TrEMBL record:
Keywords tagged on the record: Cobalt, Hydrolase, Metal-binding, Metalloprotease, Protease, Zinc
Cofactor: Co(2+); Zn(2+)
Protein known as: Cytosol non-specific dipeptidase
GO molecular function annotation: metal ion binding; metallodipeptidase activity
Enzyme class: hydrolase
Native source organism of the sequence: Flavobacterium silvaticum
Length: 491
């Protein structure tokens, strides 16, 4: 990163928060490749002379005693996750495994150059680090819990054993709207459909074409699933569905989307068309493209769909498998499945068709199904299983994790609401979110722990448009410090 840009970030207010964020963002930290950030966090704790250790799954725990006069307050757990979602624009040359995030200031926002920023959950982790390092912030006894692999499996939270933590209150710093206090969240399950297919030589007098759908916003597959954003995999499949039968279109490869928790922004398909039907095909598919763009003109104004001549593929899918694939993807639910009947404007259950890969005789379709109601989560997962099974797929469920049931009588909730009203002159939004916060999972082994989640405003998480509000970080920091000072006394 440019040294001048680093200096600009480090001089933002509050400096303790942004300095720790700059330190953290210099360390590569992909999900499931957290060795470097784990060592970084252990070195940090040890450098402060604090008790620092890994648990069996490699979560990092750092303990700091209460400051003078706070010894009689309830001990707390400050929790955030070390990994970040790695997404970049196609024209961005960046290696997440070796490079630190290239940040810059844009008005009231901190952004990254063509990649995700890592504010999810880097700002929460940085806030915890700043408190651990401080000598003048009042706080009770702290256990800082830095979990691993939150973004692609909740592995750290799922494997944290009971009995390790001693805190009575958990503050999760992973909420993305500074006027919200989260008291509940959705659980999730990975739905994966796979099958093989026979490949055939491309018929004679067929030409090759590459269809590309790109320019979509993408975003968080939980928090933004209700926004009417385009899903590149569904858009691509719709174009194929509406043209393949009439024009004898043959599919060679499809490559769309990436991570399960990111709404797919791009998809590319290589197809073959009979020379005799090219003109009619282009007329028909242009009508479909125009309809799709009209439907998404408000939410996806940058959507681009192109069809370019390419080398004719040597082989294509057998026609029966092609029909089953396209029909199954068309039938599979994507987006909001059910809204909550108990909390206004809360998505209860949804699915993201995140990944479609058709190549060399194998098909993989990856989905992330979310719900705040466990039975509804499996209802939708089974609906997907039925659709894909009819297409000849083997369907597996994995990585299931529970939601977090709201506790409206929470003691720490009352503390946060009171502080927020005093500082801001308005009521906070007490909500449950449609994302996979770790609180519900951690609560399975720590059922008596009082949990709450809050954080600064972050927009566009899980996409290269991710950005963190500078003014909101100041608001969050002030809120956080008074919460630490106001933790209730031990019973």
């Amino acid at each position: 990163m440019n040294n001048n840009l680093v200096s600009e970030i480090r001089n933002l207010d509050p400096k303790p928060l942004w300095n720790k964020f700059a330190d953290l963002n210099a360390v590569p930290r992909p999900s499931k490749k957290e060795d470097r950030v784990i060592q970084f966090m252990k070195d940090f704790g040890n450098s402060l002379g604090l008790e620092t250790f890994e648990d069996d799954i490699r979560n990092v725990i750092i303990r700091k005693p209460a400051t003078a006069g706070m010894e009689n307050r309830k001990p707390i757990v400050l929790q955030g996750h070390l990994d970040m979602v790695h997404q970049k624009n196609n024209d961005t040359n960046f290696d997440f495994d070796t490079q630190g995030i290239d940040m810059y200031v844009d008005g009231d926002w901190v952004r990254a150059k063509g990649t995700t920023l890592g504010a999810d959950n880097g700002l929460g982790v940085a806030a915890i680090m700043a408190v651990l390092e401080s000598t003048d912030i009042a706080h009770p006894a702290i256990e800082a819990l830095f979990t691993i692999d939150e973004e692609t499996g909740m592995t750290g939270a799922l494997n944290l054993k009971g009995g390790i933590l001693q805190g009575e209150i958990l503050l999760n710093l992973d909420t993305e709207e500074d006027n919200e206090i989260d008291i509940g969240c959705a659980g999730g399950i990975d739905v994966t459909a796979t099958r093989s297919y026979n490949r055939e030589y491309t018929p004679v007098l067929f030409h090759g074409y590459k269809i590309t759908a790109k320019g979509l916003n993408g975003g968080h597959s939980g928090m933004q699933i209700h926004e009417g954003l385009g899903n590149a995999n569904k858009i691509m499949n719709r174009m194929l569905f509406e043209t393949f039968d009439e024009f004898d279109l043959r599919v060679s490869t499809i490559d769309g989307g990436s991570l399960r928790n990111a709404i797919p922004r791009e998809s590319v398909a290589v197809i073959a068309l009979p020379v005799t039907k090219e003109t009619e095909f282009f007329d028909a598919i242009q009508k479909t493209i125009n309809a799709i763009k009209a439907e998404f003109q408000t939410t996806e104004p940058k959507l681009e769909i192109s069809i370019d001549k390419t080398e004719t593929p040597e082989k294509v899918m057998e026609i029966a498998a092609q029909k089953q694939l396209i029909a199954a993807l068309y039938a599979a639910v994507n987006g909001v499945y059910r809204m909550s009947a108990d909390m206004k404007d809360l998505v209860e259950t949804s699915n993201n068709i995140a990944r479609v890969l058709v190549k060399d005789g194998d098909i993989l379709i990856g989905c992330l199904t979310r719900s705040s109601v466990e039975s509804s989560k499996f209802d939708l997962a089974n609906a997907l299983k039925a659709a894909f099974s009819l297409g000849g797929f083997e369907v597996k469920f994995s990585g299931s994790y529970p939601g977090w049931t709201p506790n409206v009588n929470s003691e720490i909730l009352k503390v946060l609401v009171g502080i927020y009203k005093k500082q801001n002159g308005s009521e906070p939004h007490v909500v449950a979110c449609h994302a996979g916060l770790e609180c519900g999972i951690l609560g399975t082994n720590y059922p008596g722990m009082d949990m709450i989640s809050f954080g600064p405003t972050i927009l566009g998480a899980h996409s290269p448009d991710e950005r963190a509000s500078i003014s909101s970080s100041r608001k969050f920091w002030k809120f956080f410090l008074e919460i630490l000072e106001s933790i209730p006394a031990k019973n």
